[in-house]
Design brief:
Blueprint: H1 8-19, H2 26-34, E1 39-45, E2 48-58, E3 63-71, H3 80-92, E4 96-102, H4 106-114, E5 118-123, E6 133-139
Parallel strand pairs: 3-4
Antiparallel strand pairs: 1-2, 2-3, 4-6, 5-6
């Protein structure tokens, strides 16, 4: 389901819970919910935002970024993150998908690897607390 500016409060809560000090500031959340080229999808359960993914297609580069993906802790381990990832990839319209994940986030890394992502590089001190970011990439089947 497509997310809109009306989801701002729910998205802000989800970002803060999921990413704490790395949560996007308000301006970035407004941008991801309003910029026309951004793919923004939400999962809803029991009338609440259970998960969110945003994709940034960059056709001139031949790839797109999975800019953020999060699942509410109450709804994790149900396949919501995987479903959101696949839905976003399908809408990117580019040959490859990229994303960045904390090197310590083994749960996410494992899911991305199972979905066909492979590590391409490490960005040193990428996150606010100095932790490295792992850049992962996947060839998409239906660009």
């Amino acid at each position: 389901m497509t997310a809109s500016i009306f989801d701002l409060n729910a998205l802000r809560k989800l970002e803060n819970e999921s990413f704490d000090k790395d949560a996007w500031p308000l301006f970035d959340l407004i941008a991801v919910l309003t910029f026309p080229e951004v793919i923004r999808l939400k999962a809803v359960e029991d009338g609440q935002m259970a998960g969110f993914v945003a994709g940034d297609p960059r056709p001139s580069n031949g790839w797109g970024w999975i800019a953020t993906i999060a699942v509410d802790s109450r709804f994790r381990r149900r396949g919501i993150g995987r479903a959101l990832l696949r839905a976003c990839e399908a809408k990117l319209g580019v040959p490859r998908s990229r994303l960045t994940v904390r090197v310590s986030n083994q749960v996410a890394i494992s899911m991305y690897e199972k979905e066909g992502y492979a590590t391409t590089e490490i960005w040193s001190k990428y996150y606010n607390d100095g932790e490295d970011g792992m850049v992962m990439e996947k060839e998409l089947e239906n660009p």
